[in-house]
Amino acid sequence: MNKTIIININSIVFHIEEDAYETLRGYMIDIKRHFSQSADSGEILLDIENRIAEMFSERIQSGRKEVINKDDVSEVIAQMGRVSDFEEASEEEEIGQQSFHQQQTSSGEEHKPFQTGKKLMRDPEDTTIGGVCSGLGHYFGVQPKWMRAFFILFVLIGGSGVLLYIVLWAVMPVASTRADRMAMRGEAPNLQNFKKNFEEEMEGIRENFSGANAQFSRGLRSIGTGFGEIFKFIGKALAACMLVFTGATIFGLFFFFVACTLAIMGYQEEIYFPPLEVLEAGQAFFALLAGTFAIALPFIALFYIFLRILFKIRPMNNYLSMGMWATWIVSIIVVIFYCVIGAQDFREDSIIKVDRPLKVQPVYSFSEKDVRVIEASSSADGKTRYNIQVDGESLHNLLRSDIEIRFESLDSLEKPFIQYHYKAKGKSYQLAAERASKINYQAEQVDSKVIFNSHFALGADDLYRGQSVNVVAYLPVGTKVGIDRSLEGKIREIAYHNCYDNYPEELKIKQTEWIMTKSGLICAIPEKVEVEKKEEEDATTSE
Fold it and tell me: What's in the keyword line of the UniProt record (predicted)?
């Protein structure tokens, strides 16, 4: 059983085993001894300690451990490098180059240096306004001046470059530490690169603070700082607006999911998502769940990003982030799976035509009966009842209103009839024809009245597969027809509303009058209406 010690690195507390502590202590003593001759050794040591603290934190989070052991310290030292590794580098450089060329000549293999990933960050050391262009230049391996020219071009084209710059300013973190700047350039954060980076920075500082160049550089930086504060404020304002938008979207998706779930379960019918009608209840729920995750997870990720921008919170846990990625990918796969399942039942279609005669009448009155209205019996409490079940299925899911009605002319000696076109789809023509044959819809004639139901019913076990009904009423030429306003939404190929508007306000009724001609129905305005209109025209002319 090893003894543990509590240490503090960069204001972060770590529990470390005693033998691991001794190894780390000896390593830090060597580093301090080596950099003790530098004028700014404190800054270098602070950057090295910060990097070691980050690596320890990553190992604790990834390994789900609480105590740093000797193996952890050894791996961190191996990644950072020892002082002895680069103290002898200058002596071995020529020998290494010679052996490298010899190996290249003999084997013909090309040496590929170790490549490190770059981080997209703003460069505060090479900045005109906010360091965005220089950071992009480091990330894509181009000179910052070309990135600046790119943004200027976008500004001249349409001003979109300004908005893009502000968004990148808000999203990209600033490379405030030496370790950040090394990660920005893709340099490995080890001792040798820390020393090299520090020496390059000191050389750049000596060059910048000389003569007129120093004054110009300081003036340009002060202007950039001023613009930077302005853009920072604008960026945070945009982030706040986007935070509200993404939050409202997430809440709306949650409300939509709950409402559709209740509709699938049959508890309410006011809100329903039509694509779910093609699936069974169980399939519809999983498709709805997967679709909600597929849309909501990107918004949740954006919401967290904007929270980080505004409130400087810590990055998302790696396990949570990977879990969200996996859930999002699985959700998309599930949505595609159910889309394929639903689409297979819509490949073939079938139409069944049935003719039914009409009793001969000089005048026909066509109207609609709303089959959804259920009258309460005398023993009932008089309250309207929703969610009526038929064989365990919601009545709302069984009724369809895909009905179209047309009128065609016949010879005056022919007998009137109604032709019904029952349509449905399926995986095969046989299945589509079977579904079409199950549609039960026809008009009811009572003397001169022809009454159409507002909906037709599907079977309790049937799902929506494009079922619809087209009705064609064939009437002899000269037949007078009255059409109730309840059919206005189902009538096709005649201008019902225009005929209705021909009536004066005081004479407007629910039913309009028509006459069948060889070219079809035409509006027939009553004689008394024509007389009144003629009298009004005569009165206007006399005045």
Answer: Cell membrane, Membrane, Transmembrane, Transmembrane helix
Among the residues of 64-190, which ranges form H helices? 70-80, 83-87, 89-107, 132-140, 144-158, 160-171, 178-185
> Per the structure block, which two tokens stand in for 56?
């320890």
CB 135 within 8 A of CB 121: yes
Q: What is the spatial distance between Cα 130 and Cα 235, in angstroms, rounded to a whole number?
A: 12
For residues 61 and 221, the answer to whether their CB atoms sit within 8 Å is no
Longest dimension (CA), the chain: 120
Residue 151 CB contacts under 8 Å (≥ 6 apart), including other chains: 133, 161, 164, 165
Beta strands in 304-416 (DSSP E): 348-357, 363-369, 389-390, 393-394, 399-400, 403-410
CB atoms within 10 A of CB 138: 26
Q: Give per-residue pLDDT as tens, 226-266.
A: 666 676 777 778 888 888 999 999 999 999 898 888 877 76
DSSP 47-77: HHHHHHHHHHHHHHHHHT-SEE-HHHHHHHH
Q: Which two tokens stand for residue 58?
A: 């990553």
Q: Are 33 and 20 in contact (CB under 8 A)?
A: no
- As a whole number, the mean pLDDT across the chain is 77
Q: Give the sign of the dihedral formed by CA 28, CA 34, CA 35, CA 36.
A: positive
Rg (CA), the chain: 40
Check whether 215 has a pLDDT greater than 70: no
Q: How confident is the model at residue 383 (pLDDT cuts 50, 70, 90)?
A: very low
Q: What pLDDT does residue 105 have? A: 43
Q: Which one-letter amino acid corresponds to residue 142? A: V
Which token pair is 157?
Answer: 């084209």
d(CA 309, CA 240): 9
The H or E element containing residue 277 is: none
**Burial of residue 91 (number of CB atoms within 10 Å: 0-12, 13-18, 19+):** exposed
Mapping DSSP onto H, E and C, the string for 486-509 reads: HHCCCECCCCHHHHHHCCCHHHCC
Residues 407-448: tens digit of each pLDDT: 999 988 889 999 999 999 999 999 999 989 989 899 999 999
CA dist., res. 76 & res. 161, Å (int):
42
The CA–CA distances, whole Å, from 44 to 38, 178, 209, 256 equal 9, 8, 21, 55
Structure confidence at residue 115 (pLDDT): 44
Query: Rounded mean pLDDT of 13-41?
Result: 81
Going by the DSSP 8-state scheme, the letter that residue 82 receives in this structure is -
Helix/strand/coil for 12: strand
Q: How far apart are CA 456 and CA 401, in angstroms?
A: 7
Asked whether the beta carbons of 361 and 440 are under 8 A apart, the reply is: no
Task: Identify the H or E element spanning 471.
Answer: strand 468-476
How big is the chain, counted in residues? Answer: 543
Phi, psi (5° rounding) for residue 4?
A: -110, 150
